[in-house]
Amino acid sequence: MRITHNVLSETVLAGLNAALERLDRLQDQVTSGKRFTRPSHDPVGVARSLDHRTALAATEQYLRNVDSALAWLQATDIALAGAGDVFQRARELGVRAANNALSADDRSAIVAELDQLTAQLLELSNTSYDDQYLFAGLKTGTRPFAVAGGPYQGDTGQVLREVGPQSVLAVNIPGQPAFSDGFAALAGLRAAVLSNDGVAISSALATLDTAHAGLLAARAQAGAKMNRLEAVMQQLQEQRTNLKQLLSQVEDADMAETLVLYNEQQNVYRAALGAGARAIQPSLLDYLG
Questions:
Q1: Beta partners for 168?
Q2: What burial letters (b/e) apply to 28-59, b meaning 16+ CB within 10 Å?
Q3: Alpha helices in the chain (DSSP H)
Q4: pLDDT digits (tens, 9 = 90+) for 28-74
Q5: How does residue 110 score in pLDDT terms, banded at 50, 70 and 90?
Q6: What pTM value is reported for the model?
Q7: pLDDT tens-digit readout, 247-263
Q8: Is the distance from CB of 142 to CB of 133 less than 8 angstroms?
Q9: How far is CA 216 from the centre of its chain?
Q10: From CA 271, how far away is CA 263, in angstroms rounded?
């Protein structure tokens, strides 16, 4: 069976196209640094890449949530620490007021400072982060306390952050027990100092100590949550690093090997062009056939 010129030409062209396609793919790898730029290049690799990218995106989101939760709790801890300082100073003033040798002016000065401490506690109780009140429960747009000793205007809802697969953490500390008892204790101490009643002052100091203990418990709760979040963050950062390495193994081309293959394929293509040009030169028999 005689091979015609058309059949030979088609065969040569098919071989050249295949060689050119391999060259183009290697050139894509050299240019992009990736093993594939189209799904058809490596369907299995593309599927694995999508899985890794999905897991990486979820990990990045969890890290953002952890960052947000930590910032919230750090702001909470600072506010609670400030409230603790208020209680400590109020106790020092109460102990001083229990000394019957104080003059009326001295007691007036203590009352004035207690008023300032009460105003400071009100400010701390209304601490906000990212335009949200920390101690208002889920009513983060509402001031927890409009006035010192007034009714609590927040709720007992939990502000939740998703920090991992099936892992949710409440980042807020309810404001009512943390601050309401403190306002009441400061008011009681103020009244006892004004009346110069030693027994009432002692009772007010005991109430203040109870409120302070509750505040310390709230701060310890916030601290425990921060410790947990820091551990979660470290785990997520390690997971992110591992996923990036896996993604690189799937997607990134070995540039040294790719460059060698690219140069080899260029030589193969040039040789195929030369051989094809010689093979499909028309002869007199082709025209006669």
A1: 162
A2: bbeeeebbbeeeeebeebbebbeebeebbebb
A3: 5-32, 43-97, 104-125, 175, 181-195, 198-251, 255-279, 284-288
A4: 655 655 665 666 566 776 788 788 889 999 999 999 999 999 999 99
A5: very high
A6: 0.76
A7: 777 766 555 555 555 56
A8: yes
A9: 27
A10: 12
Q: Has residue 18 got a pLDDT over 80?
A: no
Q: What values do phi and psi take at 282, rounded to 5?
A: -70, 145
92-102: pLDDT as tens digits:
999 999 987 88
If we measure between CA atoms, which residue out of 175, 163, 169 comes closest to residue 132? 175
| Residue 168 CA: distances (Å) to CA of 27, 220, 232 | 47, 19, 12
Inter-axis angle of helices 181-195 and 43-97, nearest 10: 10
Taking residues 272-280, report their average pLDDT: 58
Closest CA to 212 of 174, 171, 187, 177: 177
Is residue 248 packed enough to be buried (19+ CB in 10 Å), middle (13-18) or exposed (0-12)? exposed
The Cβ of residue 236 has, within 10 Å, a number of other Cβ atoms equal to 20
Whole-angstrom Cα Rg for the chain:
38
Return the structure tokens found at 6.
Answer: 């058309």
